[in-house]
Amino acid sequence: MARWILAAILVGLVVAAALVRPTAPVGSPPGGRFAFPAAPAAPSWLVSALSRSVQFEDLSGGGTQSLMDLRGRGVLLHFWATWCEPCIAELPLLAELQRRYGGAHFTVVAITEEEPAVVRAFLAGRSLPFLVWSDPGGAMAAFAGDALPFSTMLGPDGEVTGRKVGRFREAEALEVAERLVILARASRTAAAESTPTPDVQRQP
Predict the structure, then answer these.
(1) Tell me: the pLDDT tens digits for 107-141?
(2) Matching CATH number, 2-17+25-192, of 3.40.30.10, 3.30.43.10, 3.30.230.10, 3.40.50.1100
């Protein structure tokens, strides 16, 4: 019962965020302002709450996944659409980030609200090294403003560390990825250092 109540509360929060968020033109020119964390989108606490509960259809690997599955890594969460020309133009840069930094400390996740069949048709013949998730129900619409492309950066603990409206410049994107990798490495180091070492009893 408690789980159903929590789900109902989260749905209500998504609707509220969608109603109050400011409007912006669809599409955004290259070099949109990089902000930590100011951009027209849901508050960070709502983003973090939603990231713990929403399931996505994984179009790159099959099945369903959630952002909880990526805990421990820095995540560049990228909102896009197949009809968005700036979004498509940015895909090669995102692919380069994944190839250069992807692994145990960092990953790119591209999320679209379009129907899975539409996205699969777009992806046919394209080799993208990062995760592509479908959210046709729009459960994560609160992450982004009304402009695409839009990116949200999540630290290894799932908390929002930054947002970006519009396309990344290459140097800017590299800086973001490197920051997320540093956060993830520091988090793992801290976790390892805080793990108690079992006492080894000496044999007489």
Answers:
(1) 999 999 888 999 999 999 888 999 999 987 776 66
(2) 3.40.30.10
